[in-house]
């Protein structure tokens, strides 16, 4: 379990938050940390704040984008300060933990945490199957990044304790982010071939389709069915002029 759920910190500006986040993870038996575009890493402050979790900081992968960080993951959940979303399910930490623990029984799962100032970008949120929001007092809702990591890690730990010996015949996990990206590219090519994609709306349409596919969370077999259908359309349809 410790390596099956990945914590991905995106655009972290304060190195102390990396160290404190790693300590929070280790407290709860989690060890897989990925840093996307950290502004100051490596940094001595990370190791000081990590205390006994310096090993997690030292092993952390540093990657250029979220797509690389979640390519092999089935379930991806992004943290948000927004109370609701028209395009995603919004879960609290306990609900998200249950889904993460269940998904991680089959393949890696990831939680995305955005930068301290602006959070996750829209295209990063579009890669998520659901969003995670930690409700707080209305008078002061702002959580420190490491605090958010601690709360989510705690809920995952408590859920994993309760899920020991859970039913192994669970539903198939969602396809990996890499498989979903291949499906999106294939769909994009077919839409271009049949003349459905127009320059004036192509970017917005691609984003809405990505959100739709993320909400659907198809498994490996369903992705193969969809790609088989797309291949059949390609064979029967001449290129658009």
How would you explain this protein's 3D organization?
The protein has 241 residues and is of the alpha/beta class. The chain folds into 2 domains: 5-162, Alpha/beta knot (3-Layer(aba) Sandwich); 177-236, Helicase, Ruva Protein, domain 3. It has helices at residues 15-27, 44-50, 54-59, 66-69, 93-104, 122-125, 145-162, 177-193, 202-216, 220-236; strands at 5-10, 32-36, 61-63, 75-79, 89-91, 109-113, 130-132. A 7-stranded parallel beta sheet has the order 3-2-1-6-4-7-5. Strand 1 (5-10), helix 1 and strand 2 (32-36) form a beta-alpha-beta unit. The longest helix is centred in the middle third of the chain and has 18 residues, at 145-162. The radius of gyration is 19 Å and the shape is elongated. The model has no long low-confidence stretch (mean pLDDT 89).
């Amino acid at each position: 379990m410790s390596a099956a759920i990945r914590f991905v910190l995106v655009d972290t500006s304060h190195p102390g938050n990396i160290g404190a986040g790693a300590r929070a993870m280790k407290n709860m038996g989690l060890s897989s940390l990925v840093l996307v575009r950290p502004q100051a890493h490596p940094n001595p402050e990370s190791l000081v704040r990590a205390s006994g979790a310096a090993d997690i900081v030292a092993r952390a992968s540093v990657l250029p984008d979220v797509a690389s960080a979640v390519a092999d993951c089935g379930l991806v959940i992004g943290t948000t300060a927004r109370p609701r979303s028209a395009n995603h399910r919004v879960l609290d930490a306990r609900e998200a933990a249950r889904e993460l623990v269940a998904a991680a029984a089959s393949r890696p799962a990831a939680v995305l945490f955005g930068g301290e100032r602006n959070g996750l970008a829209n295209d990063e949120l579009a890669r998520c199957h659901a969003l995670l929001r930690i409700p707080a007092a209305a008078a002061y809702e702002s959580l420190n990044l490491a605090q958010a990591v601690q709360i989510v890690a705690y809920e995952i730990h408590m859920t994993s304790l309760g899920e020991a010996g859970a039913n192994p015949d669970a539903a198939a996990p969602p396809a990996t982010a890499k498989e979903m990206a291949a499906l999106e590219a294939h769909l994009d090519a077919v839409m271009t071939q049949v003349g459905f994609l127009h320059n004036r709306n192509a970017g917005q349409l691609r984003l809405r389709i990505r959100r739709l596919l993320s909400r659907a969370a198809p498994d490996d077999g369903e992705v193969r069915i969809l790609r088989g259908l797309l291949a059949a359309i390609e064979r029967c349809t001449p290129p658009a002029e």
